[in-house]
Amino acid sequence: MSTTSQKHRDFVGEPMGDKSVTSLSGIGEILGKKLEQQGFDKAYVVLGQFLLLKKDSEMFSEWLKDASGANSRQAGSCSQCLREWCDSFL
Amino acid sequence: MSSLRSKTVKEMSDLLDEYEIKHGPVVDSTRSLYERKLKEAMAKGKKAKPSPDQTYYREEEEVTYEYRTPDRSDGAGDSGSYIRSRPAWSERELKHETSYSNYSRPKPEYGGKEFSDEPHMYDLPPTSKSPYLKSTPGPPKEAPKAPPSSRLVPLWVQFVFFVAVAVFLYLVFSSMETNEPIKGIE
């Protein structure tokens, strides 16, 4: 828990509802814009992609890097964030 | 090599399975990712299609491992095969760090069954030590048996030490029996 950011803890602690992509851990303004351009305008859409990839962290990280230009750390962070959210709420 | 773009969803799915790439549905948003993955997999060199033989080998490995584990526990008693008793001895070495293992090591073929029970009988009076002295023919047999173990203290030194300790204890014990004539504490 101590190694996760506040953003991570905020996201993972409650249902995501209509939160925007930038509320995901690892996704800031720039990455968020890129994702929105491709139609991933809400966190739940990115969740949808995560689920399509069968919740495989590695696959999702690769996809995210391709889609938004995220680096390994950011992609890993987002991946872990979604995985934990799924563990709690899915 | 036909273009991956032209493949149907089913074909893509089959290809991904062939390369043992865990995948979800091939839809618009996942397609390009899977195409890239397949390109990388193909570039690395084709893995063979998942054939039933591979699974059989795995089963064989698992099966032989399962067969081996009970053998290890009984391996001490079975003096028939060299290979099985070796891991048994090395395990016992680890378990019994005392000189017990020293007795059992030179004798795996010598009558392995009796000596595997012997470790529990080391508290007997020294008369039982005479069979142990017969272990001198043991060392030549030790060569194929004992794995090259790096001992700080040679085996025979431990042997002599144990005998010396046993003799000492016997002397102490026997000297304690002579208290009867001394009845000064009454």
UniProtKB/TrEMBL annotation, chain A:
One Pfam family here: SAM_BAF
Where, per UniProt, does this protein localize? Nucleus
User: Keywords, A to Z?
Assistant: Nucleus
One MF term in the entry's GO annotations:
DNA binding
The UniProt entry lists the main location of this chain as nucleus
Q: Which GO terms describe its cellular component?
A: condensed chromosome; nucleus
Gene3D superfamilies attached to this UniProt entry:
Barrier-to-autointegration factor, BAF
GO BP terms, alphabetized: chromosome organization
Protein's UniProt name = Barrier-to-autointegration factor-like protein
TrEMBL record, chain B:
Q: Which PROSITE patterns would you find in this protein's record?
A: LEM (PS50954)
Q: Where are the transmembrane segments?
A: 155-173
Transferase as UniProt keyword: no
* Pfam families linked: LEM (PF03020)
Q: Which UniProt keywords apply?
A: Membrane, Transmembrane, Transmembrane helix
* Keyword match Phosphoprotein: no
SMART domains tied to this protein: LEM (SM00540)
Biased composition, class Basic and acidic residues, residue ranges? 89-98, 106-121
- What is the official name of this protein in its record? LEM domain-containing protein
Biological source species: Pogonophryne albipinna
